[in-house]
Amino acid sequence: MKTNAILLAIALAAAGIATSKAQTVYSVNSVGFIGLSLGPGYSLMANQLNNTNNKISTLFPNMPDDCQLIKWDAASQGFGSADFTGGGVWYDQDFNVATTTLSPGEGAFFFNPGATSIPVTLVGEVPQGTNLTVNLPANYALISVITPQASPLHTIGFPATPDMQYITFSSVAQSYSPAYSFVGVQPGYDSGWSDGDFNPVNPTPAVGQGFFLFNALSASSWVRSFNVNN
Amino acid sequence: MKKTLITLAVLVAAITSHGQGTVQYANTSTTLIQTNNLNGGIGSAVGVGLYSVGLYVVASAGAVDADFTLATRQPTIGTVGNSTAAAGRIAGGGNPYTLTGIGAGAVISFQLRAWSTSAGSYEVAVVTPGAYAGKSLVGSTTTGGGITLPPALFSNTGSPVGTVPGFQMTLNPVPEPSTIALGAFGLLAAWMIRRRK
């Protein structure tokens, strides 16, 4: 995936105002869009905006034939069945219309069967609130930053634990990039992360990027508070 | 810290190496399984449950057609073309397909064979009049597993190397009634001649 993927706009778009005798309550939603360019082959990507239903048929309409979307099943520690496109429709492996969703906080492989990139525009509400949760099961999980931010993980409250690994996929090389390991915050390692040559690094997923996380300990959660105005 | 990293590397390697091998059918709209009715009609296989497909695997490179016997067939059987929405594609049996007895990162040779479900197996279908049977070329790949993506078995371009194109199931002809009648007439004539003698 070429990550000229940019959060192009976050617009304060909808405001619901309710009035009661005691007080006025404002409900503010921020709607935005993310432009992605999914290159030939596999891209490890993410949807970081809440769409109507987050179904892949809604997120990726009118795709060319033979695109695939593959999610990771943390329970079995293996890839789930691929959904694919035919005639602009997403099907599951039993040829039923796919009902797969891709929600903020999840990651997935998108397969582009063609020779040129596919432009994708994800539209929806920016996740906001005080309980934005990404589950971190034991062993491998395919996740994303739940909000459309390109920030170093250690600056957005990521609960790294010893021996965690952060693994990304290069859509250009069509292979995994060398993993980063969490070695603990210590002198010379401000973020606590190291590459394979013991150099300090700051894992920073791009907007629209998914990544594998290896959790060597028991299951935990990444709970965040986020508001576009803060 | 080095010790920590080394320990981690060993742990991850152990997790990966103990995973079962996986592959992905991924037979796309350009690599469909087709039927041939022997009258010149060729088309993508359709019909709910009419055709089954088996994945035959040998855990080494360089296998040839004769190496793929019923004993090398993986236990889970898929179906072909069970919907007009995706006629000629393989469904069922899991996709990614988890191989039995073969680990992640293994080099394998493979062949896909499809047959009329009513015949019970490819081996029976090839000798059963009225049944369809067909098989792919022999391919070779390295299995996926863990977070390694399952390799696709099909492609219409031969890339990646080792992938196979779609293939055709052909129909074993049913002897025509006239042929049967002629045979019966011949037997009757032979019997009568023997009686006269």
Outline the structure in words:
The complex is a heterodimer of chains A (230) and B (197). By secondary structure, chain A is mainly β. Chain A is built from one helix and 20 strands. Chain A has one helix at residues 56-59; strands at 2-19, 24-38, 41-45, 68-70, 72-73, 78-79, 83-86, 89-91, 108-112, 118-125, 129-136, 139-143, 165-167, 169-170, 175-176, 180-182, 193-194, 200-201, 211-215, 220-226. In chain A, strands 12-19-13-16-17-18 form a six-stranded antiparallel β-sheet, with no helix packed on it. In chain A, strands 3-9-4-7-8 form a five-stranded antiparallel β-sheet, with no helix packed on it. A three-stranded antiparallel β-sheet of chain A has the order 1-2-10, with no helix packed on it. The longest helix of chain A has 4 residues, at 56-59. Chain B has one domain. Chain B contains three helices and eleven strands, in the order αββββββββαβββα. Chain B is elongated. By secondary structure, chain B is an alpha+beta fold. The N and C termini of chain B lie far apart (102 Å). Helix content of chain B is 20%, strand content 26%. Chain A binds chain B through residues 42, 65-66, 68, 70, 72, 77-79, 81-82, 84, 86-87, 89, 91, 93-95, 109, 113, 139-140, 162-163, 165, 167, 176, 179, 181, 183-184, 186, 194, 196, 198, 212, 214, 216, and chain B through 1-2, 4-5, 7-8, 11-12, 15, 19, 22, 24, 26, 28-30, 82-83, 85-86, 89, 91-92, 94-96, 98, 144-147, 149-150.
